[in-house]
Amino acid sequence: MYYGRYSPQWIELCTAFHPTVNSTHYFAKNLTLTWQAALATWTIRNKHLHPTNAMEMDQTEIQATIQQIFHNVEHDLRLQEALNYTTSEQIMTKPT
What we know:
The protein is mostly helical. Helices cover 67% and strands 0% of the residues. It is elongated, with a radius of gyration of 21 Å. The relative contact order is 0.07. It has four helices and no strands. The protein has a domain of 46 residues.
């Protein structure tokens, strides 16, 4: 898991260097959070690649375009004040 970086040796080292920390619980939580992040990322990827309907595909494309616009604005000093009145989330939640 995670390119071999999660191993029982880490639990032993954590127990040796930090005896007040429950190493097993810490690494179990760490592993759970890693899996949740991986599954969430995979779910988002699948949603973008395989939308369930045409409207959802349009929303996905629009959201990607809006995020790219905001990214470009953040990196261009001349444009930084152009979109300071809103966020990409606000734009996506406005009714059409």
